[in-house]
Structure prediction request, 330 residues.
Amino acid sequence: MIWAAVLLGSLGCYLEKLFGFILPPTLLDRPMIRSVAALLPIAMLSALVAVQTFGDGQSLVIDARLAGVAVAVVALLLRAPFLVVVLAAAISAALLRALGVAS
Amino acid sequence: MTNTPEGSKRPITTSAIGIGLATGAYGLSFGAISVASGLSTLQTQTLSLLMFTGASQFALVGVLGAGGGVIAAVLTAWLLGARNGLYALHLAPTLNLRGLLKPVAAQLTIDESTAMSIANDHTPAHSRHAFWATGISVYLLWNVGTLLGALGASAIGDPAVLGLDAAIPAGFLALLWPRLRDRTAWAIAAGGATVALVLTPLTRSGVPVLASALIAVFAGYHLRDRT
Prediction:
């Protein structure tokens, strides 16, 4: 099952790139296509942040992940590099759990 | 690299290596998060080799890890990867590729290589050099980073204890952050998050993130004359 997702997902993402080199560049003249493709990552990445912070199956919960994400926001405001942002979130969530402050 | 009247290409190569190193660090976290989400090291590495587009890779493993299923994971990855097609459309006239170089260039068409190509478009030769140097550098280091991250995460235990489950939303946030450049972007981000949270208790896992794409379609339709 995971392999199906890995291979199908990869094939589609590659074809999207390849079509761009094969299809006529005049497609770029359609403002709707340009604007939707530019906005998709914003809406979906934001949805992923929300679901991965609060989601637990079909329920919404507040746990150590929220503290981790809050620390990530601070790290981003301080212009920390990607790896530092991710590590800061993981370490702060792990610390809160180790101290028994959050689940 | 040869010097041209418009200036040396060496600074471009240096920047390309720097971007590759920074992306390699993303790769480390992708490798670790992917393994923590339940993928094997080989599956994780296959994504970096074949899919090679960070946001889609993070999304695929995130949706799978949350139990969203194959279809939702694949659709989410595809929708997030659609922008690479636009990049390719934009790059095609400058790169002016023939034959086998087209499918190779396609695989290297991502945020970083496109941005570097556009940033160095004072001559087509510089623009092309920036695309290839950045694409190759990021491809190699992203894959090395993925491998090290996956092996590292396989060596340690329960992801929740380590807080790796908090690293996943933090990773998405770091990918989102540079795109929040204006009020429209913030509004769309807020809309996407709201749709996803409202739908989480109502639909099966994976659907909420897919549904957030409708916010982009709706906003894109209304803003089509402004971008």
Observations:
- The beta strands of chain A are 55-56, 59-60.
- The longest strand of chain A covers residues 55-56.
- Chain A is about 75% helix and 5% strand.
